[in-house]
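I'm stuck. Protein, please.
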Amino acid sequence: MGCILLNIGTMAAVYEGMSAEYDGILEKINLFFTAAFTLEMVLKMVAHGGNYFDAGWNKFDCFVVSASYLDIIMQ
């Protein structure tokens, strides 16, 4: 939960006219959180085995992580 709240704070820190250095720092933080959420998802997949997608929250988590990768690719 703490990582989610920190990630939200990072996303809220974006503003018009921010410096390139500040933008680079936020991008690195975003990559860190994407990696952390990916690790969480993979560990849960291993732990739950074939039953991972039975839970709605796990489907949602997978969607959010996938959307994060799409965002990274689109940049």
Summary: The helical segments are 2-12, 20-48, 56-74. The chain has one domain: 2-74. DSSP finds three helices and no strands in the chain. The first helix runs from residue 2 to 12.
